[in-house]
């Protein structure tokens, strides 16, 4: 037998161009976080790694504004946390209610459907807002074990109001699951005070870390449902019975091997959470809102129309611009990339072609 010759591309070092990442994510990573991710690897079960994981847990608790013990970071992107939340709290045949006003509600509905849940959806056009009255009516009708809402709908640039919804879910014995992948660190969220049962985010947006880790937290109500199942979760990798031990949250004296976590990714996430803690949540929220305000004014002064017209509902970390009539959005974005080295996107899912999506460069 002879060895196949490798392609010539593998005989030269990696080269990556610099880009201004003004899409909804990933965002440009600051030097301090890049340096943290470039530190020497240690074993994923070393005591020093456990200390770093403990730091991450504390950082997530601060960012989420929660005291929940069951707080971890998933080994994977925001979709990993999304699937973990659904897989662990829902069993086949149970009712799930999903608010769909952009791509992320669509994704959760499909995930729940694939694992055998009885899925009900509330649908609005991209950027639409669900009133608490509409939500309570659907909760009463479908009696779901889980209700999903996106706080930061990046495909539309919407920051959806959350106040009062957790109270409604408790009234109807429903777990409240919230996606903050595009909003955490940029728009206020208070997990405990707003009675959110499960909250998750991603590392690559306002947290300014590389993609690949996803913080998630479960309160005691969610844990009661999660750890008293009749069936095992459909995913072994995302089974919180194992992950709770891996993160030292189950009260056991030893952490057992479950999977090999992304060591460098955890280094980066830990450092990004430290930067957020040093800056302070309130200052981070203020900074995002201030910079977004300058952007909104500049765009409107140019004669462009913002997709979310109500300023109070705009997502500070992701601005969506309505595509001007007569323009091809793909050609515009290609021109911006070619001549200005800037990434912007053209919407996702139901908002594709309706908007141009622009995030913020933040160091």
From TrEMBL:
Instruction: List the InterPro entries hit by this protein, alphabetically.
Output: Aminotrans_V_dom, Aminotrans_V_PyrdxlP_BS, PyrdxlP-dep_Trfase, PyrdxlP-dep_Trfase_major, PyrdxlP-dep_Trfase_small, SP_NH2Trfase/AEP_transaminase
Q: What is its EC number?
A: 2.6.1.44, 2.6.1.51
Q: Could you state one GO cellular component term attached to this entry?
A: peroxisome
Q: By its UniProt entry, which SUPFAM superfamilies does this protein fall under? A: PLP-dependent transferases (SSF53383)
- One family from Pfam that matches here is Aminotran_5
User: What residue stretches are annotated with the Aminotransferase class V domain?
Assistant: 20-347
N6-(pyridoxal phosphate)lysine is found on: 205
Q: What is this protein called?
A: Alanine--glyoxylate aminotransferase
Give the species this sequence originates from: Oncorhynchus kisutch (Coho salmon)
């Amino acid at each position: 037998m002879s060895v196949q010759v490798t392609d010539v591309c593998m005989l030269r070092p990696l080269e990556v161009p610099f880009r201004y990442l003004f899409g909804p994510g990933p965002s440009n990573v600051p030097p301090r976080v890049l340096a943290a991710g470039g530190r020497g690897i240690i074993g994923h079960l070393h005591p020093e790694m456990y200390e770093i994981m403990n730091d991450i847990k504390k950082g997530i608790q601060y960012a989420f504004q929660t005291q929940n013990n069951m707080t971890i970071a998933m080994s994977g992107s925001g979709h990993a946390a999304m699937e973990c939340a659904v897989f662990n709290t829902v069993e086949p045949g149970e009712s799930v209610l999903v608010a769909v006003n952009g791509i992320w509600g669509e994704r959760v509905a499909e995930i729940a459907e694939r694992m055998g849940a009885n899925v009900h959806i509330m649908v609005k056009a991209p950027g639409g807002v669900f009133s608490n009255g509409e939500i309570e009516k659907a909760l009463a009708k479908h009696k779901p074990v889980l209700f999903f809402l996106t706080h930061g709908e990046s495909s539309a640039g919407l920051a959806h109001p959350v106040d009062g919804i957790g109270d409604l879910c408790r009234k109807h014995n429903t777990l409240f699951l919230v996606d903050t992948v595009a909003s955490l660190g940029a728009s206020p969220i208070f997990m405990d005070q707003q009675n959110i049962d499960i909250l998750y985010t991603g590392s690559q947006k306002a947290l300014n870390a590389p993609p690949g880790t996803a913080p998630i937290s479960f309160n005691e109500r969610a844990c009661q449902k999660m750890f008293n199942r009749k069936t095992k979760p459909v995913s072994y990798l995302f089974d919180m019975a194992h992950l709770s031990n891996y993160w030292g949250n189950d009260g056991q004296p030893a952490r057992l091997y479950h999977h090999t976590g992304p060591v460098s990714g955890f280094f980066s996430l830990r450092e990004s959470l430290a930067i957020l803690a040093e800056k302070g949540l309130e200052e981070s929220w203020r900074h995002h809102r201030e910079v977004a305000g300058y952007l909104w004014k500049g765009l409107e002064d140019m004669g462009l129309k913002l997709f979310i017209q109500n300023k109070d509902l705009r997502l500070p970390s992701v601005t969506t611009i309505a595509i001007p009539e007569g323009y091809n959005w793909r050609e515009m974005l290609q021109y911006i990339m070619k001549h200005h080295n800037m990434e912007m996107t053209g919407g996702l899912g139901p908002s594709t072609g309706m908007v141009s999506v622009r995030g913020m460069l933040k160091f």
